[in-house]
Amino acid sequence: MTLTQIVRNAFTSRQKEIERYDNEAEALQMHTLEYLATTAKDTEYGRKHTFCAVKSYESFAENVPVNTYEELKADIDRMRHGERDVLWRGKVKWYAKSSGTTNDKSKFIPVSREGLQHVHYAGGKDAVALYLRNNPKSRIFDGRSLILGGSHSPNYDVEDSLVGDLSAILIENINPLANLVRVPKKATALLSDFEIKRERIARETMNKNVTNISGVPSWMLSVLTRVMELTGKTHLEEVWPNLEVFFHGGVAFTPYRKQYEQLITSPNMHYMETYNASEGFFGLQDDPADKSMLLMIDYGVFYEFIPMDEFDKENPTVVPLWGVEKDKNYAMLISTSCGLWRYVIGDTVMFTSTNPYKFVITGRTKHFINAFGEELIVDNAEKGLAYACEQTGAEVLEYTAAPVFMDGNAKCRHQWLIEFSKEPEDLNRFTSLLDWKLQEINSDYEAKRYKNITLQHLEIVKARRGLFNDWLKAKGKLGGQHKVPRLSNSRKHIEELLEMNKQ
Predict the structure, then answer these.
(1) Separation CA 281–CA 119 (nearest Å)
(2) Cβ-contact 339, 88 below 8 angstroms
(3) If phi over 0 gives left and psi between -120 and 50 gives alpha, with beta otherwise, what is residue 123?
(4) Which domain holds residue 384?
């Protein structure tokens, strides 16, 4: 009997619990809300917003305002300096540094002990539980897990308090038994210099029996490429013949899928998307045949949603989970056991099912182009690029796009900066295919493109090899959970990149 066969039984009860998601979603979410309000009622924030009086969803929504990071920033900073019972009970020692973008200003997301165990680690365990349910012949525990993480550093001068990438905080606090089946060694995993870390990870893991890998697709691809260079092999299964699954998240997988499929040709390879952020673990791809993810509704996270067509209104509609509709774009709000209350996380989602609640990530509340009423979201961009790549055989490594508000001829358009891992033979054809697909899937974009009246044909600028990594490195954001902003109404990022592209 293999180790996986022995361990598999430990996940059976949890697999059955997840089946409750089908018919008990509202009850599970209300139980979560009651737990959050009760646990935090004696905190400063809980007293201020009368958590003790929360008896229903309506009373919670009436008493607690919708928050962005800016509204909670001062309280979080006090917590970082060691104050207790501010947003969450007790003293919170860990802070995930994140912006979700490459903005200069970082956010410091509190990670409480309860959040660490019952949100973040719970998500990782459930990923394995659902994977084993879908793959009865798995031998995932018969080898090593390659987990790609970031780095951390001391938080101010507070004893035992850390700030850094969430992945680093998770590795730092992981059950010591997990280190027996994880690679690379802890000291390597937590290195701050990504280029040094990449080299060491490749050398430490290339002779191990790796059965599963976890991380952000872009950074993992960089590590795997180095493994291939060092071993001289053609395909990754020649290095790790028992590799069977990639648990990925952080950025959309679509631009990278083809490259992974070329790197890993084994028919036994699986891919499982996860929605894990600094703020919490929210979703898992429970069905390999369905790209949508199951919303994890019995962790320490209570969900609310704002329809995106109301997002910029002074008093937008806010609905709980049981108030959402399918095929409608929402901004997601979370209240968590880490002390985030009705917090606008910045991601947008669309539900594909409400029994159980399943969704796709459609973009960011701030990562879209709506300079001319076109309302182009990241989901549109990913689908458009996937189509153009499929038709031309091209492969996109990284990209960003922004509007050109008016050029010398008084013409407005979208400008895309794309780093190809495989360039199309005819860039003009690729550009036309992308433009056409965007019109097909986005009626607002199509309307603005009508007869070139409002928007001209989009423009693509080819980025030199390594441009986006060089840009991230220049900002001290290479590796970890940092990522390139895909779409922006501002030209700040693209202008910086275009300038570097000349070098």
Answers:
(1) 6
(2) yes
(3) alpha
(4) 368-501
Distance CA 101, CA 269 (A): 30
Domain count, the chain: 2
- The dihedrals phi and psi of 28, each to the nearest 5 degrees, come to -65, -40
Residue 490's pLDDT band, with cuts at 50, 70 and 90, is confident
* Residue burial 285-309, b: 16+ Cβ < 10 Å; e: rest: bbeeeeebbbbbbbbbbbbbbbbbe
The sheet that has 107-111: what strands, in order across it? Answer: 107-111, 94-98, 162-164, 152-154
Extract long-range pairs of 43-51: CB within 8 Å, 24+ residues apart. Answer: 43/85, 43/86, 43/87, 43/88, 43/89, 43/339, 44/75, 44/85, 44/86, 44/87, 45/75, 45/86, 45/87, 45/339, 45/341, 49/341
Decide: 20 and 296 in contact? Cβ < 8 Å. no
460, two tokens: 């693509």
User: Side chain identity at 364, as an amino acid letter?
Assistant: R
Which is more confident, 161 or 447?
Answer: 161
Residues whose CB falls within 8 Å of the CB of residue 448, separated by 6 or more in sequence, listed in order = 372, 373, 374, 454, 455
**What average pLDDT does the segment 208-212 reach?**
97
Among 255, 277, 299, give the residue marking a domain's end. 277
Residue 336: which of 305, 302, 381 has the closest Cα? 302
Residue 418 to residue 459: CA distance in whole angstroms? 10
User: Which band of pLDDT confidence, cut at 50, 70 and 90, is reported for residue 471?
Assistant: very high
This prediction has a pTM of 0.80
Q: What is the mean pLDDT of residues 178-204?
A: 90
Tokens describing residue 25? 């979603």
What DSSP line would sit under 429-479, residue for residue?
Answer: HHHHHHHHHHHHH-HHHHHHHGGGSS-PPPEEEEPPTTHHHHHHHHTT--S
Among 6-10, 105-109, 290-294, 427-431, which stretch is predicted with the lowest mean pLDDT? 105-109
Residue 480 clears pLDDT 70, i.e. is over it: no
Using CA atoms, how far residue 105 sits from 7, 101, 116, in Å, is: 43, 10, 24
What are the residues whose beta carbons fall under 8 Å from the beta carbon of 338, sequence distance 6 or more? Answer: 88, 92, 109, 110, 111, 112, 114, 115, 119, 279, 280, 300
408 in any annotated domain? yes
Distance in angstroms (rounded) separating the CA atoms of residues 302 and 318: 13
Residue 48 is assigned to a structural domain of this protein: no
DSSP letter, residue 141: G
| Domain finish residue from 277, 292, 319 | 277
Rounded mean pLDDT, 220-227: 91
In a domain, 464, yes or no: yes
Q: Could you tell me what percent of the chain has a pLDDT over 90?
A: 70
pLDDT tops 90 at residue 63? yes
